[in-house]
């Protein structure tokens, strides 16, 4: 697996006084993964993010992007090769939507036809039909729509890396959920390396391939959401993520991970509810309860039965205690 | 209303003097304004970036605002003598504060989030200024030019005190000679000029202001901003 | 932002509206029947007085104003509407109460010096005096005296014929001019001209010594043909509305020539400086200006008697004179002593390098001449 971004003993001490904002961070971000930086405010997550596109320069250590030390690149070139989305969106209010999206492609010298095609394509991708939205101004869009444009703008020049700094924090709950779903859908298509800062645990658990948990400038744990919930590194992580919450844990685990192989000889269960292998265990459990069933049938996309999921298996998993301070696998 | 006819007659009788005054008044006003714009917009860009220095410069400019232009004229007389140039300098000094202050305020007023996005996207210093900051500061900046323009056109009437010419020649002739007819020959064109400048720059200001949904015509013009 | 643009529009609108008001308020716009002339002219002069006040104050004392025109025109409009009423009431008040005699002057050294002399002479005669010297321009003084705000001030016959009465063909004979002016003043304003002083402070032209030598200039006839090679600094009046009667155009008519290479209109106080500093070769000069000899300039005689005479006399309200008949004798004694040489010397003590106070100069003169102790 290729390392897209490497943080090598990164520290950042603003003003050189007092506590450093980021202390000796070592991380390797795998290409194509969505990695969430999670922690309370002031933990250094945003500082860490902004050092990747050199809005801040570290006071110690180095950052490699695509294997190259970022200080060896021209700073504007570096930034143009990295998508950047911020909480306040920051669209240019005097430019139409398509012009906003065209900014980076224009800077890197794309021709007009290509830019136009790209901007239409991106608008469609983020769910804003180009014909209707391309000539609007930011002030004519809702907050959620603006952030969709912000996302399209960051994706415009097809960067390999995206930095997203609490992009959905200022958006209402319903829209946020929808945007998170869209981001996951888009990520399925584009497979960017995404660094995503949030202080919202639910959001982190929902979006992340891996989560970096930070506290007071240091990385406390870097793991998959499930591992973080099931094996939190310490009390801080357990408390932050609410690791003891059984339902939360179940919601992170797909049915496929717990299902038993399908036994063709068995004839029962034909009237049982069916689920796909990707359905999470929390949804599976509620299905079982609502149907008063003992077992679910797991079927693939073609409708073939591939396994079964008995209530007992879920019960057993839920009953496992959370192990704090467990070694990383 | 008969007096307007008389003023018109007087202007026609003194056509040569009138057109000379017109030329002088327009030249004084627009050259002063042009110098102020060319010098103060860059200066405003600088002050908007440097905190303490900026405050000092802006405060000095604000002091300039309360010094009456007639005082500047008379103070400059021993140094620069009579005529067009000292009048031009006084008027330029008058035009500087509103343009400088508004350029500074306009640029400082740009949403920091917009600027952070621009930086994060890899825009150069100049690119941010030219493509983002100046277009967004433009309505405020033009507001400053508008204030300066009306002030300069009105104050150019004072140039006559030091031989700078302009419509003030007629106004002062009217005042000292106790003749409202002659006064009007100078005052009417000044009023009209000031009014036209005010309306034109006000229109321009609206044209470049952030648009409200539904104002399609304006939107297209603004979208062509570099 | 919004407020600022509103203010801008307001300024422009004010300019326009005030111009309209000036237009409506001007009495010369329509011929006025004889009976109402006095009141109407009073209104007019009051209006213009205010106007002039605004502009002159700005010029002299650096009052803050971005648009002299705006202030001036607006003030004109405001004053015009109220003037007639005030005139009536103020006049009655002044006549009724036999109070102090208010001695005033205009705002240049000669007028202030003579005003102070009048005040000293009246005090010497035992008449109670209040001073309002350095009042302002002609228009202000005229408005003030017709309203009754002042009782006496020194005026010039030429000025009365010009900006005040606007005579189109003033006689050039001093006595004829005085009689005409005095008659009109009595009829129109109920004001009396006492005896004039012997000196004449008429318009004229002065040139630098170098220019006078180069072109061999002694009188205005010499200057007429060579004017085209010279730069001329003029006060506004000289090339304004009365240019044809008492200014540059009248010179052109009387002498021919007199087309200067360049004519610069400057503030009246800067005429001589312009020549001294080399910004002009010739300038408008008044007969008793101390600057002419003080700056070593050359006065060119009006050999064809083009300019109307400017003789000084006390102008007194009729009602005041009736209340204090002793005024006449007291002031006539002063006027008799004022010759061209003397008044020129007095002027230079104030406006020249000595920079003496006009009041001190006046007192010294009155003592020397034995008019007071």
Overall description:
The complex is a heterotrimer of chains A (329), B (226) and C (373). Chain A is an alpha/beta fold and 329 residues long. Chain A contains 13 helices and 14 strands. Chain A is globular, with a radius of gyration of 22 Å. Chain B is mainly α and 226 residues long. Chain B has ten helices and no strands. Residues 212-226 of chain B have low confidence and may be disordered. By secondary structure, chain C is of the alpha/beta class. Chain C has a five-stranded mixed beta sheet. Chain C has a three-stranded antiparallel beta sheet with strand order 3-10-4, with helices on both faces. In chain C, strands 1-2 form a two-stranded parallel sheet. The radius of gyration of chain C is 21 Å and the shape is globular. The N and C termini of chain C lie far apart (67 Å). At the B-C interface, α1, α4, α7, α8 and α9 of B face α1, α2, α3 and α6 of C.
Q: What would you say about this model in short?
A:
By secondary structure, chain A is α/β, with parallel strands linked by helices. Chain A has 13 helices and 14 strands. In chain C, helix 2 packs across helix 3, helix 2 crosses helix 5 and helix 4 crosses helix 17.
Largest sheet of chain B: none
**Low-pLDDT segments, ≥5 res of chain B:** 212-226
- State the share of residues found in helices of chain A, binned by percent: 25-40%
Record field, number of beta strands of chain A: 14
| Arithmetic mean of pLDDT of chain B | 86
Q: What's the alpha carbon Rg of chain B, rounded to whole Å?
A: 21 Å
Class based on secondary structure composition and strand pairing of chain B: mainly alpha
* Total DSSP helices of chain A: 13
Number of strands of chain B: 0
């Amino acid at each position: 697996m290729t390392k897209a971004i490497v943080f090598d003993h990164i520290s950042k001490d603003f003003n050189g006084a007092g506590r450093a904002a980021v202390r000796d961070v070592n991380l390797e971000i795998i290409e194509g993964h969505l990695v969430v930086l999670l922690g309370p405010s002031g933990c250094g997550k945003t500082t860490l993010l902004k050092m990747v596109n050199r809005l801040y320069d570290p006071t110690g250590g180095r950052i490699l992007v695509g294997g190259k030390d970022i200080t060896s690149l021209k700073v504007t070139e570096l930034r143009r090769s990295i998508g950047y989305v911020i909480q306040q969106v920051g669209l240019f209010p005097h430019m139409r939507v398509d012009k906003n999206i065209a900014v980076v492609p224009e800077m890197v010298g794309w021709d007009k036809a290509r830019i136009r095609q790209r901007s239409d394509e991106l608008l469609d991708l983020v769910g804003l039909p180009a014909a209707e939205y391309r000539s609007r101004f930011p002030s004519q869009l809702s907050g959620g729509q603006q952030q969709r444009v912000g996302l399209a703008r960051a994706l415009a020049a097809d960067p390999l890396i995206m930095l997203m700094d609490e992009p959905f924090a200022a958006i209402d709950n319903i829209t946020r959920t929808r945007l998170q779903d869209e981001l996951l859908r888009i990520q399925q298509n584009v497979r960017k390396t995404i660094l995503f800062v949030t202080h919202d645990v639910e959001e982190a658990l929902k979006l992340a391939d891996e989560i970096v948990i930070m506290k007071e400038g240091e990385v406390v744990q870097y793991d998959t959401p499930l591992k973080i919930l099931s094996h939190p590194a310490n009390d801080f992580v357990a408390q932050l993520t609410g690791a003891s919450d059984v339902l939360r844990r179940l919601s992170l685990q797909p049915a496929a991970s717990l299902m038993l192989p399908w036994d063709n000889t068995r004839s029962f269960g034909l009237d049982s509810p069916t689920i796909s292998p990707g359905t999470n265990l929390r949804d599976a459990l509620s299905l079982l309860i609502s149907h008063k069933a003992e077992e679910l049938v797991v079927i693939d996309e073609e409708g073939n039965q591939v396994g079964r999921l008995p209530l007992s298996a879920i019960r057993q998993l839920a009953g496992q205690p959370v192990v704090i301070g467990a070694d990383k696998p | 209303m008969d007096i307007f006819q008389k003023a018109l007659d007087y202007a026609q009788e003194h056509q040569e003097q009138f057109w000379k005054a017109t030329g002088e008044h327009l030249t004084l006003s627009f050259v002063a304004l042009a110098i102020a714009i060319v010098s103060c917009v860059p200066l405003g860009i600088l002050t908007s970036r440097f905190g303490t220095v900026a405050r000092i410069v802006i405060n000095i400019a604000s002091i300039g605002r309360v010094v009456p232009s007639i005082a500047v004229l008379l103070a400059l007389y021993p140094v620069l003598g009579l005529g067009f140039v000292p009048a031009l300098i006084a008027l330029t000094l008058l035009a500087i504060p509103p343009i400088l202050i508004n350029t500074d305020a306009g640029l400082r007023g740009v949403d920091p989030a917009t600027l952070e996005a621009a930086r994060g996207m890899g825009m150069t210093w100049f690119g941010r200024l030219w493509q983002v900051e100046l277009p967004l500061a433009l309505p405020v900046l033009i507001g400053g030019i508008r204030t300066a323009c009306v002030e300069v056109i009105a104050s150019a009437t004072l140039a006559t005190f030091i031989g700078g010419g302009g419509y003030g020649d007629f106004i002062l002739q009217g005042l000292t000679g106790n003749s409202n007819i002659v006064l009007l020959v100078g005052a009417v064109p000044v009023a009209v000029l000031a009014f036209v400048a005010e309306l034109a720059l006000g229109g321009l200001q609206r044209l470049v202001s952030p648009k409200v949904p539904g104002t399609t015509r304006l939107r297209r013009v603004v979208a062509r901003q570099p | 932002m919004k407020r600022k643009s509103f203010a801008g529009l307001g300024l422009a609108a004010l300019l326009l509206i005030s111009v309209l008001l000036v237009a409506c308020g001007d009495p010369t716009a329509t011929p006025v029947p004889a009976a109402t002339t006095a009141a109407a002219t009073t209104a007019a002069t009051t209006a213009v007085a205010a106007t002039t006040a605004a502009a002159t104050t700005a010029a002299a004392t650096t009052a803050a104003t971005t648009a002299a025109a705006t202030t001036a025109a607006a003030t004109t409009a405001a004053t015009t509407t109220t003037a007639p009423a005030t005139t009536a009431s103020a006049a009655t008040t002044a006549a009724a109460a036999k109070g102090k005699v208010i001695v005033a002057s205009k705002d240049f050294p000669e007028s202030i010096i003579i005003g102070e002399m009048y005040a000293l002479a009246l005090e010497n005669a035992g008449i109670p005096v209040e001073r309002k010297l350095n009042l302002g321009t002609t228009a202000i003084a005229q408005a003030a005296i017709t309203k009754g705000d002042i009782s006496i001030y020194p005026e010039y016959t030429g000025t009365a014929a010009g900006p005040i009465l606007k005579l189109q063909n003033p006689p050039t004979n001093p006595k004829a001019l005085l009689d005409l002016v005095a008659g009109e003043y009595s009829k129109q304003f109920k004001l009396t001209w006492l005896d004039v002083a012997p000196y004449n402070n008429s318009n004229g032209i002065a040139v630098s010594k170098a220019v006078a030598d180069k072109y061999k200039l002694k009188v205005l006839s010499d200057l007429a043909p060579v004017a085209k090679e010279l730069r001329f600094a003029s006060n506004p009046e000289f090339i304004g509305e009365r240019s044809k009667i008492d200014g540059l155009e009248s010179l052109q008519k009387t002498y021919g020539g007199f087309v200067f290479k360049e004519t610069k209109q400057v503030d009246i106080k800067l005429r001589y400086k312009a020549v001294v500093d080399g910004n002009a070769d010739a300038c408008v000069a008044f007969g008793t200006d101390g600057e002419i000899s003080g700056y070593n300039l050359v006065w060119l005689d009006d050999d064809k008697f083009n300019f109307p005479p400017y003789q000084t006399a006390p102008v007194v309200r009729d009602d005041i004179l009736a209340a204090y008949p002793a005024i006449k004798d007291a002031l006539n004694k002063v006027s008799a002593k004022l010759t061209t040489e003397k008044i020129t010397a007095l002027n230079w003590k104030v406006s020249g390098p000595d920079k003496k106070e006009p009041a001190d100069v006046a007192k010294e003169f009155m003592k020397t001449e034995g008019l007071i102790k």
